[in-house]
Amino acid sequence: MHRNRCWLLLPRRFLHPDLVWLGDVQPARVRKLCFSERPSDPNHSDSPTAFMITVDGQTPAPYDPHATQPDITVHQGDVEDWVIENRSRESHAFHMHQVHFMLTKWQGVPVDEPLLRDTIDVPYWDGKRPDYPSVTPRMDFRDPNEVGTFVYHCHLLEHKDGGMMGTIRVLPKGSLPAR
């Protein structure tokens, strides 16, 4: 086992004893992200699939590697809850670079699971239920070394490579407002 992976099993208070345990922190904001997909050519259902992970309120589109602005901006020191819905009919695995999170809800039901993660499976939508499957990770941006621009994406490579990815910029504490 890679030595650093073991740290994901330890509560953050053992890594940064000066921080309040993530499960006890009131999040600064709640965001919703949605997994979705569609044929890249709507006139041909057999065309390659376009995969997307979209911040609620933005127009769904595959990842643009030439985009100059991040999809999400936060400040170092923030803690946020992200509701991640799967609006597609296949499973996805949400993965975040540089930042760890703790699962707080599964399908809207609170869970007591103190492990820190960088990946979580999001079940598929059956096309019948009125609500979409979801997970709620509590995102921890308090580490002073986690400033910069990072990616989040579906951990299934075909999906990531097909556009199911986004960027997040973590600004230094006290800089311009986050969006």
> What portion of the residues fall into strands of 2 or more residues?
35-45%
What is the CATH architecture term?
Answer: Sandwich
CATH class: Mainly Beta
CATH fold assignment: Immunoglobulin-like
Q: For the terminal residues, how far apart are their CA atoms?
A: 37 Å
> What is the overall silhouette?
globular
Count of extended strands: 11
Number of domains: 1
SSE order, one letter for each helix or strand: HEEEEEEEEEEHE
Description:
By secondary structure, the chain is mostly beta strands. It has one domain (3-171): Immunoglobulin-like, CATH 2.60.40.420. Helix content is 5%, strand content 38%. It is built from 2 helices and 11 strands. The chain has helices at 12-15, 157-161, and strands at 29-39, 49-55, 72-75, 79-86, 92-96, 101-106, 109-110, 119-122, 134-140, 148-154, 165-171. The strands form 2 sheets. A 6-stranded mixed β-sheet has the order 2-1-4-9-6-7. A hairpin with a 2-residue loop joins strand 6 and strand 7 (109-110). The radius of gyration is 17 Å and the shape is globular. The protein starts with 11 loop residues before the first helix and ends in an 8-residue tail after the last strand.
Record keyword descriptors for this entry.
179 residues; mainly beta; Immunoglobulin-like; six-stranded mixed beta sheet; five-stranded mixed beta sheet; 2 helices; disordered N terminus
